[in-house]
Amino acid sequence: MNITPLVWVITIAITIAFFVYEFFAHVRKPHEPTIGESARWSAFYIGLALLFGVGVGVVSGWTYGGEYFAGYLTEKALSIDNLFVFLIVMTGFAVPKIYQQKVLMIGIVIALVLRGVFIAVGATLIENFSWIFYLFGALLLFLAYRQAFAHGEADPSQGRFMRFVRRRLPVSDDYNGDRLTVVKAGRRFVTPMLLVIVAIGFVDLIFAVDSIPAIYGLTEEAYIVFTANAFALMGLRQLFFLIGGLLERLVYLAQGLAVILAFIGVKLVLHAMHVNELPFINGGEPMLWAPEIPIWFSLLFIAATIAVATTASLIKTRGGRAATSHPTTPAADHASAAHTEKELS
Fold first, then answer.
1. pLDDT at position 248, please?
2. How far is CA 120 from CA 112, 113, 223, 232, in A?
3. Which residue would you say has higher pLDDT here, 82 or 158?
4. Torsion angle (degrees, nearest 10) of CA 238, 241, 245, 249
5. pLDDT of res. 58
6. What is the sign, positive or negative, of the torsion defined by CA atoms of 13, 19, 23, 24?
């Protein structure tokens, strides 16, 4: 792809404009969005993402279009996993419903900024060091193992990281609207709202570690990596309120993501073998016999894995849904429903 600096500037400016509009139109005034509002905006952002992918295919060719769609599906699935942990964080801190939109918005913006940094670093590494594909592949295989087999319970508000923060900051016991600090008896305290934002930022950092190598396993185009991430994060706030109780029913989401990460990890290792330059592997010569997995197969595999994981989850939890309380309610019993490979403790 031949992406000029002007195209980059326009893309980033439009992305920022969307998030600024989101803040002033929906988030600035605290409220709990309705199902209708969430459904309309979720459909809008998903439709916009699909339309952009068609545009990439028409303008730059369907190889790049396929890479975008595969990347978007992967990042969207990982973002839903991210939502699940956001839910656990807000549950652990008992964030009032009317302020959850603001927390989500801040978390999504932090995620986009962190991923932008990782994208730039990843692009530089890939351009200068072909062996980085070995490292990315090994990292994804490790993360796939953790995603599939790391289970347990955790209260994010009592994790080691948050205990470290509490020891260094004076924290008030109660929320004070959506303020981040409050003055009591002449002394300034941080509110639980600030701790929630710190926790969300820490979660975003963890998710960026597997998110960016995963999509670089599908495309080496930094522009596709950025736009797929941006569109996956757009509308995530509305999706949180829309799918509500469905989150807790996606019991096989972690296993589905593990399969996707493992698949992309293998794809990266095969690609690394195909472009090998390391002198202690095959004498520094490329292993041209190593197969390259085509993007159409990657797209079908990722889409099928997501579909199977979702369908299997809904079938398994179909009979027990009535016993499950609404996950956006800040109740303590939801703290046990976490994917603890991303836990804060």
1. 72
2. 12, 11, 10, 18
3. 82
4. 30
5. 94
6. positive
Q: What is the pTM of this model?
A: 0.77
Tens-digit pLDDT profile for residues 47-56: 999 999 999 9
> Does the pLDDT of residue 276 top 70, yes or no?
yes
Q: Which pLDDT belongs to residue 327?
A: 42
Specify the pLDDT at position 323: 42
